[in-house]
Amino acid sequence: xxxxxxxxxxxxxxxxxxxxxxxxxxxxxxxxxxxxxxxxxxxxxxxxxxxxxxxxxxxxxxxxxxxxxxxxxxxxxxxxxxxxxxxxxxxxxxxxxxxxxxxxxxxxxxxxxxxxxxxxxxxxxxxxxxxxxxxxxxxxxxxxxxxxxxxxxxxxxxxxxxxxxxxxxxxxxxxxxxxxxxxxxxxxxxxxxxxxxxxxxxxxxxxxxxxxxxxxxxxx
Length: 220
Hints:
Elements: H1 3-40, H2 43-78, H3 85-120, H4 129-159, H5 170-189, H6 198-219
């Protein structure tokens, strides 16, 4: 790799850290703090937060996701020849999380925000808001679930020994992709189940991480 590409690669990694921390930090804020607060808040306080706080947080959240993806793609483009199983799986999880933000969470949160703005103005809640909130919540819980193994694989790709993706363990790759696809389909069409609580989503995230490591160990 030329000196110029090394500089670009490092700058992309630096920015990837900054925007990634912004994105995942807000993801955890939404799931561990804001959601739990809304369960206990008075109706007026909840409406006020949805019209003043949530839009600001969601702006940083979705654009953090966007620039995390873009800087990650720059690094993948530069390091394409050195793609490993770890970085591939981490990238798949990260890309799905990005798509969940922009195609599920944000569109449905816009409906919820608009509904609360209408209530604050003295009107009635939008009928579609009742269905939009659970869809956004499930996708957000799924992103929290995905984030635990995603962060592990992103880190292990640089700090732990792992073989090349090309010619690597295709059996493990297929099994892992099936698991990820099943969970993503649940995010779109299913229910929260054990992801309903904070403890449940954290435990499920570590369980998913353990299963994925188990698949790699057994098929390796």
